Batch of 2 targets.
Target 1
Amino acid sequence: MARLVDVAAAAGVSVGLVSRVLNGDPATRATEETRQRVQRAADRLGYRPNHAARALRSARTYTIGLVVPDLTNALFAELMRGVEEASARLGYTVLLGRSEALTDQARISRLLDDGRVDGFLLQGRDADTTESLAAVAGTAPVVVINSRMRHRRGSVMLDDQAAGRVAAEFLIQRGHRRIGLINGPRSLLTARLRAAGFRSAMRDAGLPVSPKAITWVGYTVPDAAPALESIMSAAHPPSAVVVGNVNAAMGVLTEARRIGLSVPGELSVIAIHDAWTAAHTWPPLSTVKLPLDRLGEQAVEALHRRLEGRPGEDQLLDDVAPEVIVRESVADRG
Amino acid sequence: MARLVDVAAAAGVSVGLVSRVLNGDPATRATEETRQRVQRAADRLGYRPNHAARALRSARTYTIGLVVPDLTNALFAELMRGVEEASARLGYTVLLGRSEALTDQARISRLLDDGRVDGFLLQGRDADTTESLAAVAGTAPVVVINSRMRHRRGSVMLDDQAAGRVAAEFLIQRGHRRIGLINGPRSLLTARLRAAGFRSAMRDAGLPVSPKAITWVGYTVPDAAPALESIMSAAHPPSAVVVGNVNAAMGVLTEARRIGLSVPGELSVIAIHDAWTAAHTWPPLSTVKLPLDRLGEQAVEALHRRLEGRPGEDQLLDDVAPEVIVRESVADRG
DNA sequence: TTGTATGCGTTATCAG
DNA sequence: CTGATAACGCATACAA
């Protein structure tokens, strides 16, 4: 590989100058002519800066670690896409961390101490609270996705409240009046916000919501069965439910079939978050689509600013309203 | 962060010695006593080797690039898990490349030239042939997953032939006699092998397989519709099909419903590869499970050997037979 | 058995 | 406007 000295030799100038020209150092105003010569030589030799040398010298790796709890989750895939996109644009590369292992602080700070990454994007698990996330982040440059950190800035969130509201409104509009919410754990900020949105929609429509109509189990497939069980055991079970997560909603469909509950005949279902899989369940799942790819981009940009010394506030992606993807899991009622 | 000099100072020895002791250099036989002292000092100071410095000095990054065409694919998620697992075990970290962009050779060699990775794991797309993969790999240390490279060693594959055979055998055993194969493109080695396995099972059972009973469209969801169309338009359409990929099979189920074809009533379906999503289609999809996680591990190990200068042959994971996951998409017949 | 010194490729500081 | 040179932290050849 061509090094700086090779380019310098080829252009007949010094290494220092090449470095400055190639980095577009604003403090150095080289002659247009030498600039050209250097650039040309670099191109001709196919010069590529050595990452290790640069990292060693500048103490910046231009690498960010991405920590997600579960690669298998289609939602995180979309998130990753946004992360990758923005990273490429800003000149970072992405280091993927096995999340289960990485979530403990030791691992995080190790990667940082090794000088492998400049900072982290952190998507917590269902069990993570604002406290635990802050603890995990420690003093590292971290941006938390879909949650917040206790006593610490640096997070990007979707408009979960709007998502909860839009989902409920869709059901109400289709004539449903007894509506349940199969939610994530109460410890999760997203779950609380979705419930708030859900409640506000119900309130605006003059509809009651009994405590039994809301479950707080979790966002994953196996959480669906106990949640559905609990909700349908009410004296007046709902004719429709909002499910806090597509994956959990797939669990709901499967469990409903198992217990002989027809969807959408006896129970309509709408899920928060969209994924390609939702089109292939039976019935195909109606969802509220949130811009997860954009969330990923914003997260990278936020971390970038932070690394550049311009921290900024926690961010909320509420510029575009959540979109309802209408498929077949919601029936009209009365 | 503590550096080598800090540890040296704390232990009262020289940097060189610390380096050698900590790296377990076999050529240097330090006193047990000094060894202890060094180790203790390192532990106490929480010494971690600086990755950039080490990479610069030794021209090894202990990082491998993983290139997959689609993060969204549940199959690759399982593969990634295996990759991550083995990487951690062997002391590598994984750099995730956005695949669509990374598949061209320019990007690959750039990452390598930058000194960001030591080598690559490459999972091609449906469009990639053994020639194109070899071209993409160029001269870089590469291990290709699920395919081969033309005129070049370095690949790990599942036993696709066995998978095709097992799938067909399962159908035959359930009494089916007219059986189709919805396969990936003929340009793909995996597709050809699966077809070979399929054919051998049919032959062994004394069953005919007309050319029209096999399609060679692709492994993805949108490929399912034209393939199903073609297969069902035969004079004597099959009562069962093997589908080359779970994702395509999900497309088949959805398309079958759209055209009013009952599964498994009129058509039984079994897919090659398993994913959690297969349990949540309707009907739940029977599959042939292949050890994708182990494939990921093997790929890392193969690349590791290659990087250590011990290339080795192309590998085939045929030590354990493909497992049929029985769900509800296959009906007994006669 | 242990210490010293050099260089990996860059960036940045200081002269010229 | 440009060139020389000193680090960055580590591994290793060579001395002691």
Note: The longest helix of chain B spans residues 74-90.
Target 2
Amino acid sequence: MLITSWNVNSVRARILNVLDYLKSSNTDILMIQEIKTEEKNFPFQEFKNVGYHSYVFGQKSYNGVAFVSKKVIDKIDKAFFVDEKKQSRIIVGNIKNKSETIKLVNIYVPNGNPIDTDKYKYKKNWLNSFNKKIKKLLTVNKNIIIGGDFNVIPNEIDVHDSKKYENDALFKLEIRKKFFELLNLGFQDIYRYFNKNKQEYTFWDYTSGAWQKNNGLRIDHFLISNNLLDKIKNVNIDKKPRSKIKPSDHTPIELEII
DNA sequence: ATGGCCGAGATCCTCGGA
């Protein structure tokens, strides 16, 4: 089974690229972020036409997350915890893999810039609430996959120029600590688990020729609960979608489960 | 040495993203 996470930066502006990706990857479950639309304007039909169900937690203009899936996803939860700003940033559901049930968590963590503002506090609070809730979930469910746009650069290796990002909300030590805290609950950053020294990115800014210069960031992640580790066959960052016409600024990360 | 983009939604600009 193939599961993909991708921040598409507007599902309506990106519909052709997303359909292209579904066709070429044949992924089973696509977790998307920043759909930038309300549920009523989501392209359900376009996905249905190619064999995918959609489960949508939308918002007008900003944010929004969804599952686009060949398989049925049960127990959809759009209120995993209380978001102080009532933004649509997390959707959770259950999938079956053989006889096992896996809790799938699709997140779009707040950006948090600039750091001297309320936006930064919101990011910290959001991560605190999220970690607390995951800790609780782990006591009743050992099979958890968290995927999405974390807006966290875990380490120096995950950014083209770490010096530039010292005071950025994506790389502030205080924020990275929240990410490590989450890992310490019993997860692996599965890309890094399989690739100890590899330097790959999932995001390249639209400005400054960042893509051409490979000035990227690794901020889209899959976290796998330790109980599921031996089921993960592979993880891959697919750079092709970032090279296409009218791309998202992020590219998909793919997870292969046996 | 600096800054260069893009999408949504409402106007001909602002906000938000990272």
Note: Residues 197 and 248 of chain A are 26 Å apart (CA to CA).
